[in-house]
Write a structure and sequence with these properties.
By secondary structure, this protein is α+β, with helices and mostly antiparallel strands. The protein has 6 helices and 18 strands. A hairpin with a 2-residue loop joins strand 17 and strand 18. Helix 1 runs antiparallel to helix 2.
Length: 424
Amino acid sequence: MYKNYRSFYSILLLVSCFLLAPAFLLSQTTYSKNTSKEQKTTSQSPVNQSVKFRSNSFKPAWHLTIGGGPSLFFGDTRQYRYYPVVNYESEWKFGGSLILARSFTPVFQLRGQMLYTGLAGTRRPWKRYFNTELLEFNMNLAINLNNLINGYRSDRAWGVDLLVGIGLTNFNTTVYELGSDKIISKQGFGNGSGIGGRTLEGLLMGGIGFSYQLNTNWGIRLETANRALNSDKLDNHVGGFKYDIYNHSFLGLTYTFSSSGKNIILAPEEPALHIVDPDLMMPVQPDKQSDQEVTSFNRVIDVLELNEQPIEEPSEKTVKPEPEVKTETEKPAPVKTIYGIEYRVQIRARYGTRIGIDYLARTYNLPASEIKENTFNGYYIYTIGSFATYDEAASKRNSIRSQHGVYDAFVVAFKDGNRLQKLP
């Protein structure tokens, strides 16, 4: 009866083991391909460089998941092969699960799980059934198949994970006579080596999980995984199938903690170039002080930094200062305004389709009235603020990064309402 189970779970364990080693290599290959695409794209347009770097900046974080759901036993003391009985001693039991996880890369997440649940099984021809109270601890690895196959995207809400792990289970089992509820035998209850005298057994686990990110911190998690014990004692009946198996599935909430760790840039940055602005006809180079500032934040680098020298365009817009009487103690104030130029903080961009402003306001806790939508090179870009100087915009950028969680926000320049390819 249970030969199919043995074959199925043997294959499951073998596949899980073979996936562990190649998974890391596949993830590196995927990111190498993405990197090549990024370099080709960035060589065409500076705005593509900023958008791609934004979407490929991964930040390791801690996650806490709490959930609950049904637990089912697969072993000798079970009435049907494929579905549980619900009357005359039901085989449905429920439990709760707590998971603490750390995501180190976009593909791999290491998790520690605690499960407290009941298990039950009924065998009517034997005129017996059993109940088990179980406490399990395991360590498992979640492999994100979306990021492994398709590459990492920070705006992807759905996730599918492959789960592989090992652990220990502590249980007390009581076997009853069906109909009379007379106790036939017990397992654990002070005679085992586990917690509180429970029977202690090792296990291997494998399963699959589905997640949906509601916002920056909260998400929904649906998960199911099978556990194969290294013994046949869970139902206190030795014989038939050599290894008892049980399944726990749950639906829960996941909270992602804000992290101050270092970003992992998945696409390498190209070296700074000496670029001539075709509008202003002045050479522009990155500013050293700005490089230090961005390094301290460990965030995405702005396209180019501001040249602090005042610039006046030789056009009719130039305002000529009125003549004034100079004295020995009075000096003319330096001109700080760059005519026709304003600076904003870009928070998001998407190619070809809009992002709802109300959605961005809820996600980042920003006033919807302050978010502006513009188009540039086929992208819909979303910005905050309007500033006369780069320093004012940089201060706003730092505030948005630290207080609103938009870690890859950066400063952009507009001229007469149109987005410039680079900072002037």
